[in-house]
Amino acid sequence: MLNKFILISCIMLVVYPCTINAQIDSAAVVILDSMSNVVTELESCSFMLKTEYDIYNTQLGLIKHSDNAKVYLKAPDKMLVNRRGDKGIKDFYYDGKNFIYYSADNNQYATLPAPPTIMETIDSISSYYGVEFPAADIFYTDLVDTILAKSDILTYLGETEIDDKICFHIAGTTDEMSYQIFVADDGSFLPVKMIIVYTGSTGNPQYEAIFKDWSLNPVLEDAMFDFVIPSGAEKIKFLKK
Predict the structure, then answer these.
(1) What are the structural domains of the chain?
(2) Residue 52 and residue 20: Cα distance in Å, rounded?
(3) At what angle do helices 143-150 and 26-40 cross, to 10 degrees?
(4) What is the H or E stretch that residue 89 is in?
(5) Would you give the distance in Å from CA 79 to the centre of its chain?
(6) pLDDT tens, 170-181?
(7) DSSP-assigned letter for residue 26
(8) DSSP class of residue 205?
């Protein structure tokens, strides 16, 4: 499939900005751009997301943790994330007006007024309150611009197999990290896996995200994004990070 990209690749390098003296592989740019176009143009979607991440312990070094999440998105203003793992059982609701956090472990919830779109809400809640939205980067419309602006190296490594799926394998580096992105080579250009190594942090901690069970443009009723307060739940306040 790579041969199909050759002509477009030459054009892409003229259009997209990149760091001075960066080593940028035009095939990698076209693959990432195709992936970005697919996911940002979806009207709705759902997928499973498995994440593994390292947290540095002064006595033990890097300790591996993991989470699983079921994610539902309905553009432009609906989101539901059911997250289960080492950080507990947590749900995140966004109904276009409010963002709600719910901890099933403690039966506590908190709510905030939210901006009018999913990505604006993710930006705001993450920046001010430190709430993590795993692998949300792939849904930013300026993803490829950001990668090119920060990368010293971006290269296409060929095809590889992830869970019986043939994928384009892309790798790159910035001043603070190295990263790998695996994109399905089945015509869908959906993200399959992402790995980040934080080379600027103690012990070089890693973050890995695996995307599974994509459903593209499913019918998602608005009611599923409405939070119903559980019996006996305690309302708490968000704390700024």
Answers:
(1) 22-235 (2.50.20.10)
(2) 33
(3) 150
(4) strand 88-94
(5) 14
(6) 999 999 999 999
(7) H
(8) -
